[in-house]
Amino acid sequence: MIPVLGVVVGVTIGLLLQPTVPVALQPYLPIAVIAALDAVVGAMRALGERRFNDRVFVVSFISNVLIAGFMVFLGDQLGVGSQLSTGVVVVLGIRIFANAAAIRRRIFHA
């Protein structure tokens, strides 16, 4: 119940304050969100399999965001930022859908 309450409070604060992202960080925000979603969906799968560890989740969350952001930054420096961003989104998207499929199979036994 506490995580749901945290999400509701966070969304409400975001809607009220309407924060802006600096222009320099805008290319990295979508990648960071996808990386964070990967960690969250992975945590939900681990929770359903009764092997969730909060330390693993925190490390996974932070490292996913930092590594994905660094990869996009490196791609920008090499002049292939959009291609590398697409690659990161595809890989993380595959992981998200694989975890979601495992959750679905566990819930519906199919």
Characterization of the model:
There is one protein chain. The protein has 110 residues and is mainly α. Helix content is 81%, strand content 0%. The protein has helices at 2-17, 29-48, 54-78, 81-108. Helix 2 (29-48) runs antiparallel to helix 3 (54-78). The mean pLDDT is 91.
Supply database-style keywords.
single chain, 110 residues, mainly alpha, 4 helices
Fraction of residues in H or I helices: over 70%
Given as residue ranges, the uncertain stretches (5+ residues, pLDDT < 50) are none
Average the pLDDT over all residues and give the rounded result. Answer: 91
Class by helix and strand content?
Answer: mainly alpha
Please report the number of helical segments. 4
Largest sheet: none
Order of helices and strands: HHHH
Rg calc: 16 Å
In one word, what is the shape?
A: globular
**How far apart lie the N and C ends?**
28 Å
Percentage of residues in DSSP E strands: under 5%
The total count of strands amounts to: 0
List the helices and strands and how they pair.
Elements: H1 2-17, H2 29-48, H3 54-78, H4 81-108
Short note summarizing the structure:
The chain is built from four helices and no strands. It has 110 residues and is an all-alpha fold.
